[in-house]
Design goal:
heterodimer; A: mainly beta; five-stranded antiparallel sheet; 56% strand; B: seven-stranded mixed sheet
Chain lengths: 109, 115
Amino acid sequence: DQQVKQNSPSLSVQEGRISILNCDYTNSMFDYFLWYKKYPAEGPTFLISISSIKDKNEDGRFTVFLNKSAKHLSLHIVPSQPGDSAVYFCAASWGKLQFGAGTQVVVTP
Amino acid sequence: ETGVTQTPRHLVMGMTNKKSLKCEQHLGHNAMYWYKQSAKKPLELMFVYNFKEQTENNSVPSRFSPECPNSSHLFLHLHTLQPEDSALYLCASSQEEGLRDYGYTFGSGTRLTVV
């Protein structure tokens, strides 16, 4: 039973525009949410996180929004840069991390 | 070396072979994890060790056998694998199991191909 879902396997965005990645979850026990970024031939690296007591967390070009009532979170990247091309994993935790399947982001010039 | 190091980076093995994957972390973390990543699928948690004690076995077949001799090292022993076990195996570490404020630090993974 997949408790963390990323329904968009891929996203193409033009350089300078906003990238919006979405993630839905089903387990209301999750109290911490994270986004990871993964380049080919490398392990995932931590990007940004948010506690369930907040609805927004911002770090530079990256902002994560949490809508608990909808069990939905999103990652905004603005402006998108070519180096942002990677696979982005959403993860949720209530002790151990559960990951989504990832969204492949391609930033085009 | 820093971070989480996994060896080998690539491994091709026959179904009757026995091999081991190694993971080492130099971060002073106390929890270590094995994940499996198959194409187009979420990362699947396999095993968790917290202060050298196994705290999770996520219904992993016995042909996968983990070993954690100390908080810095984690092994995954493989024997009589199946072709469907071909995947990227990722090791991760964290300060302590259950702490939410820190992300996991992942290694680069071992790309395993079973022939």
